[in-house]
Design a protein that fits this description.
The complex is a heterodimer of chains A (407) and B (257). By secondary structure, chain A is α+β, with helices and mostly antiparallel strands. Chain A is built from 15 helices and twelve strands. The chains are: A alpha+beta (407), B alpha/beta (257).
């Protein structure tokens, strides 16, 4: 019966060729838009995430805040907040070496880099600028920030009094490799340093305020001898961060473990709503295509009323007749979706070329995900079959003697 | 089984319509023995086609029962009836009712495809043989629309015969054909019937055709009115009975033979 239905469905379709081609074209357009859209969005999102966290720590181990975020002090009858902003005692991790050692042994962590952090003021002649000092071990920090790759001028070196400054900072203070600057701390401490290299982390805020220096040097400057501020961690799969953070929490209970997600809530919710709107568009495209198939097949039941009547009269069961229409849906779905996949690829290629030709070569790669491709293919074929349900039921209801009696 | 009539109708009534009811058949009780060539005649609207459709399991009686080979068709589901039609009955309609999407050979094979897988070599050979028998050896691969009316009706006959049905039901098989072609088709049916000893019930307006039957039943206003066995009573007597204005069946009961 299956074979019979397939044969009938195929013949019914090819005898009304232009109808069939139009429906297939409709499915093709729908599926290719779905593929294009989903690839574009996923490429874009992957790029956004890469840009956001690619060269930033994915997980941070920080000391627990020991100070309450605010506290009240009674003053006569008045109770007033002593300080408007939360008071934070300068927190630090004292015994960080065993932690670092443990982290380096873990398989799920790509790199962990201890960091001493604090702010200061850079002076060069009469130019001054607020900066963030980052005391690191270059071999670890480089794995996160790719400093060696990103040193534009000079050399990547931070031993002793050597420091690395950002591109914007260098141009603001008119610094060149080899120049000497002094850094003044809020505590009054100060030191003289040699600019060994100028980096470009592709982020203006970072480039204009960050200074990398050797960890022990930073410890001295920031009065944190022997201690560090945080440990920065990068992992291979960015979306595994919450999982890994959970495990780290169990291991290092006295510390705060923060993931990039908690620091990028806005980005994540933007990505979520972007995905949602992409799904919505895909859903409605699919719906429109399905309705298109259904309407053509409904019309074809009326067109083929005679044939269906004959087939039923000579013994085709209702199951057989409905199978013919479901098959038509399936055939249209398979052809349309397959062509849709092909033209989806072409559309992506075309998009990339047009973008390139107009000078705005897209900064991210549109990669077609095999899983979502198969998903789209499966869903659209199923939708095509579902579209045939109503016409199939219509065909089932047809009474053969009505057809025979009316000639 | 031999004693059992092939077809047995018991008090078959057919009423169409839900709001405005019109009764087409009244208490039809009759039997048809195996191998008989029965012709149903009667004026338009007398219910002969309806009766044929009920016998052919295309339609169900409103009340009453239909037995074929002792099986009560009323107990069959729609799916079972469809299968039964396919295996047991060959239909030939006034209009050929072929599938324009297929060629002559495929149209013959359709009734096999419906319930079976790939046709065997034997079935293919049988289809070819049948087409040859109906004189269409050279048009086997021709699209249906390229065939003449007579050729199309002959394809339909070959299709009806493919599954070797025990019962052939023909509703004015020559109604849409010119006299000469119609004659050829009738000749063909007669020949097939003689060779295969199939039971055949034919509805016709054509008295010439009716006279060749084993048995003629005339319906008037949904009731059995006359019954003649031309080969028993002779041509002259048959015509006399058919032309008379009174029925020779008081009620359907007496037609049991």
């Amino acid at each position: 019966m299956f074979r019979f239905a397939l044969r009938m469905a195929w013949r019914f379709l090819i005898t009304s060729r232009s109808q069939m081609l139009l429906v297939i074209l409709g499915i093709t357009v729908g599926v290719s838009i779905q593929i294009f859209l989903s690839s574009l969005i996923s490429g874009l999102q992957a790029d956004l995430i890469q840009q956001t966290v690619g060269d930033a720590p994915h997980i941070i181990i920080a000391p627990e805040d020991r100070t309450p975020s605010s506290f009240l002090l009674s003053q006569g009858n008045l109770v007033v907040p002593l300080l408007a902003s939360p008071v934070k005692e300068e927190s630090k991790i004292l015994s960080w070496q065993p932690i670092q050692k443990q982290l380096l042994q873990r398989q799920d962590i790509r790199v962990s880099s201890p960091l001493v952090e604090g702010s200061g003021i850079v002076q060069k002649e009469d130019l001054k600028k607020n900066v963030i000092l980052k005391g690191v071990f270059l071999n670890y920090a480089d794995l996160i920030y790719k400093l060696k790759e990103r040193t534009r001028e000079g050399i990547t070196q931070i031993g002793g009094n050597n420091i690395l400054v950002g591109k914007e900072l260098a141009s603001d203070l008119r610094l060149n490799p080899g120049d000497t600057i002094s850094i003044v701390m809020p505590s009054g401490k100060q030191g003289r340093f040699i600019v060994s290299g100028i980096f470009d982390l592709e982020n203006k805020a970072t480039n204009s305020s960050w200074i990398f220096m050797d960890l022990p040097t930073a410890q001295t400057l920031l009065d944190k001898e022997g201690a560090i501020s945080i440990i920065e961690i990068q992992i291979d799969q960015v979306f595994q961060s919450e999982n890994i953070a959970q495990k780290l929490k169990q291991e290092f209970t006295q510390y705060n473990i923060e993931t990039w997600q908690t620091r990028n809530q806005q980005l994540l919710s933007a990505l979520r709503s972007q995905s949602l709107s992409s799904y919505m568009i895909q859903f409605f495209v699919l719906l429109a295509v399905t309705l298109g198939i259904a309407s053509v097949l409904v019309v074809s039941v009326t067109q083929k009323i005679r044939e269906i009547g004959i087939l039923k009269a000579i013994g085709t069961t209702n199951t057989g007749v409905s199978l013919i229409f479901l098959m038509q849906g399936a055939i249209l779905g398979v052809f349309g979706s397959s062509l849709g996949v092909l033209s989806g690829f072409l559309l992506i290629r075309l998009f990339q070329q047009v973008a390139q030709a107009s000078g705005g070569a897209i900064s991210f790669s549109i990669d077609v995900n095999l899983f979502s491709l198969l998903l789209i293919l499966t869903i659209s074929i199923i939708a095509s079959i579902l579209a045939a349900i109503s016409p199939a039921r219509q065909a089932t209801k047809l009474v053969p003697i009505e057809v025979i009696r009316n000639g | 089984m031999d004693n059992l009539p092939l077809i047995e109708l018991s008090k078959v009534n057919k009423i169409y319509g839900k709001l405005v009811k019109s009764q087409i058949l009244f208490d039809i009780t009759m039997t048809v023995p195996s191998g008989q060539f029965l012709v149903l005649i009667g004026p338009s609207g007398s219910g002969k086609s309806t009766l044929l459709n009920i016998i052919g399991a295309l339609d169900r009686p409103t009340t009453g029962e239909v037995f074929i080979q002792g099986k009560n068709l009323g107990k069959f589901s729609d799916e079972e009836l469809a299968r039964f039609r396919n295996q047991f009955i060959g239909f030939i309609f006034q209009f050929h009712y072929l599938l324009p999407e297929f060629n002559a050979l495929e149209n013959v094979l359709v009734s096999y495809w419906i319930h079976s897988l790939k046709p065997s070599k034997e079935i293919l050979e049988r289809a070819m043989y049948l087409l040859e028998q109906v004189g269409l050896k050279d048009s086997v691969r021709k699209r249906i629309n390229l065939l003449s009316g007579g050729q199309q009706q002959r394809v339909a006959i070959a299709r009806a015969l493919l599954n070797s049905p025990q019962l052939i039901l023909a509703d004015e098989p020559t109604g849409a054909l010119d006299t000469k072609t119609g004659e050829q088709v009738l000749e063909l049916l007669a020949q097939i019937r003689q060779e295969s000893k199939m039971t055949m019930i034919m509805v016709t307006h054509n008295r010439e055709v009716a006279l060749r039957a084993d048995r003629i039943i005339e319906l008037i206003d949904g009731k059995l009115c006359k019954e003649v066995y031309p080969k028993t009573v002779g041509l002259h007597e048959t015509i006399k009975i058919l032309e008379s204005h009174s029925c020779n069946l008081e009620d359907a009961e007496s037609s049991l033979s």
